[in-house]
What does this fold into?
Amino acid sequence: MNLIEINNLRDTRLAPYVLLTEAQLRNRLDPAQGVIICESPKVIRIALDLGYEPLSLLCESKHVLGDAQDIVERLGDTPIFTGPRELLQTLTGYTLTRGVLCAMRRRPQPKAENICAGAERVVVIDGVVDNTNIGAIFRSAAALGIEAVLVTPQSCDPYNRRSIRVSMGNVFLVPWAWIDKPADLKAMGFKTVAMALTDDSVPIDDPALNAEPRLAIILGTEGDGLSQEAISEADYVARIPMQNGVDSLNVAAASAVAFWQLRK
It folds into this structure.
């Protein structure tokens, strides 16, 4: 056990947890050196089980032989930084993590064509800019049988630490890749359905949607929804029927409804 006691958060060895921005963690200049931050024992265990490489652990002293004991035992000589709760509570967001954080090596992203090969139901996240929504969409995707997630460059990075936490680690369970635009799925053999409120949209329970052998569900940004280009290029436009004068659902809630209704 490589246990290291800390007495202040300015220790440069804690930079991934304290000093580096999400953009710096991602390390666009050298993706092979990118870092992700996993928060809470459950999320860390999922990442370790899937073979993600731990770089260091940060936790309260009491968790070394408590909530994080099984994790510590798996880390070998990986640095384990510990300190008193009073110190670590000054770290933004720490109280939401159940007292354990782990820095891990970011993996190279696969190509969209590879993760979509053989898939029947995938989702495209187009321009969603709230990390909480990204995490919630991944959690619903894992729970409801979505086989791959495609993310446009206008969206948040799914490996943002908040997205990882909200997803409960499911961002590691569903393969995902970057894609330029939703229409690119057509070249892979998918029909596309844009989730949007338009005059010619069909209800989400339209039998034609479920009958499609390979379907890509396109979800848009929180404020304005999908662009007109994304809507016009889609094979279908679908809506979730509303009642009581409600115009729409939050994109994360809408994703769960769509994934359930359109599952194979």
Q: What stands out?
A: The first strand starts at residue 2 and ends at 5.
